[in-house]
Write a structure and sequence with these properties.
The protein has helices at about 265-270, 295-300, and strands spanning about 10-15, 30, 45-50, 50-55, 70-75, 80-95, 100-110, 115, 120, 125-145, 150-160, 175-180, 200-205, 220-225, 230-235, 290-295, 310-315, 320-325, 330-335, 345-350, 355, 360-365, 370-380, 380-385, 390. It is mostly beta strands. It is globular.
Amino acid sequence: MTRRYLIPLAVATVLTAGLASPAAAASDVGWRADLSTVDADDNGVTTHDGAVRLDRAAPTPASARAAIRTGFLQLEPRTFDAPVNAVAATVRSSVPAGAEVAVDVRGAVGDEQWTEWVEARPDAPAVLPTFVTTVQVRLALTAEKASPEVSRVDLRAFTTVAAPEVGAQAAGLSYRVYATREGLVGGTTANGHVIVSRDHFAALPSRRGLSAKGTGTYSVRVCASNGRCEWAPVWDVGPWNTKDDYWNPSATREMWKDLPQGKPEAQAAYQDGYNGGKDQFGRTVANPAGIDLADGTFWDGLKLTDNAWVTVTYQWTGSGPAGFIRTAGDPLNVRSGATSTASQVGLAANYAQVRVECQVTGQSVTGSQGTSNIWFRIAAGKFVARAYVSGVSGATAC
């Protein structure tokens, strides 16, 4: 197994050095993280006397099929008076062999909209893709056997000398990758969700795009060759790898930086013998999968009967109006027109983020968000009723 930033000492301190901000920095603020509380957006961790450890029942991400317990402590967002784009972390921790502690950071870019998680590494801060005034920090703990323990995290937000590059596209990054069916009903995903029959979510091989349980901040649009699409939240890590954010350019990709952007390591291993044909855990890769789909997404949303090549759009990499599906639990029908009698051309899972291209007037519908005759076009020839979508502002007429 490839491991980075492990601390083999019984007790060690991870220091982030050489991170001086420019003299004219817009903001430079330090604070100490509150590690005393575990709440609904945390998973697989416990706190005692101000220290964080993996819970004995912490899940092993179902999709990755690797016996590595994983837990997350998501700290409260912190807002600053002036913009920042970097966060450095000093962590006091005890990390046994086979365990790892990481500090992830993201920035708020709108209502319920966030940048991707970026790791603050021992030798470098987390640099966000844009300036923000609100950041959130997440501790990620993993272990094969004995749990790591984090007793203190000191953080510092500031601006870097060079302005970040913002490369968001209106529609978001989109790649053709191989999809497999996750199945594993009764198993637990990386974010703590217990998989149910005909479930609706997706798994990607990196925690950078992992949503907390019951949220869809990081969602994907998956479209099959039959023309059907499903919008689904990313709730698990896998398949095969756990540090392969292949949708990112090599400059920011966590591992496998010599692979082309958009090509999963598993695909390269399977098709080209890359890395000796093995994944990050040393397992022989048996298929080129870049995404795992829950049964409901696979069977009902896309109407697939076998593993297949699909086109995936990573919703959080886009820009423009966006909202979140809000239902009582079942996925929302995606229609070919602005009426409930139009043909069903896909599904949008509860909690999933949808990017809104434009809006039209159609049939009046009553849903979780009230009554409305507005329908949002979320892809060419695909519409959802506004009555089931929260958070959209700024949508224009089609």
